Amino acid sequence: MAGLKWIGATLGWSLGGPIGAIIGLAIGSLGDAMSDKGNLLGSGNPNTQQKQEPKYRSRPNYRTQQQRRAQTTSGDFEVSLLILASVVIKADGKQDQRELDFVRNKFVELYGKDRANKAFKLFKKVSNQSISTRDVSMQIQQMMDHSSRLQLLHFLFGIAKADGMVTDEEEDQIHSISNYLGISNRDYSSIKAMFYNSVDNAYTILEIDKSASVDQIKKAYRNMAKKYHPDRVEHLGEEHKKGAEDKFKQVQKAYEFIQKERGF
């Protein structure tokens, strides 16, 4: 099998640490030449390639952490998503075909059929491994910006809901991942509410109480629209910017629902 030069951006921090070990093992089982690891998952654009830092530090200082988060690439996000998706799918003790189809279809939507097919082959190899959710999530928390981590969480809920319902085991696993990712309970509840039907969901999505005033509602909408705006993940590539539109639309729908309910 030829080298997997299909992600479109060179991997950065995910070449090291627990994620690098998982991907390296998966690539090895696919028969790829490990000598090609420098461009393992992306040929990259010569105008946008960034210096790779394969070594993972468990306790980076604040300045280094912020600098590295700015270097997260589409490839870093994609392999992080692959690994966490495999964890959520196995959370209830089985791999439902509808959830597997959701992952594959989402990759087709984001990256196109050819790249999605290759990504899914890697995904299946990753799924066969025993993965430390804490170690992987902590690496992501230290290296990936907040907006990208929120996008990961939204995708994981989408996987869990693909078979029609989110089981308790899946929700517990996603909540655990969210905590390791350093996502606040309010942000977690906001994204979770996008996948459940409840009269209070619109308020939860905007991270406010039902007793909020009109001015508070308007302010919350502005804040959430900024937080979930697709431009916040434009550094991951146009494909992920499009994927972030789902969250943004949910915020708009929540605000419109409250506007209609409260009559303003």
Automatic annotation (TrEMBL):
Keywords: Membrane, Transmembrane, Transmembrane helix. It comes from the Bacteria. The keyword Ribosomal protein does not apply. Residues 201-263 form the J domain. Residues 63-73 have a biased composition (Low complexity). Signal peptide: none annotated. CDD domains: DnaJ. Residues 38-73 are annotated as: Disordered. Residues 42-51 have a biased composition (Polar residues). The chain crosses the membrane at residues 6-27. PANTHER family: CO-CHAPERONE PROTEIN DJLA (PTHR24074). This is TerB family tellurite resistance protein. It comes from Olleya sediminilitoris.
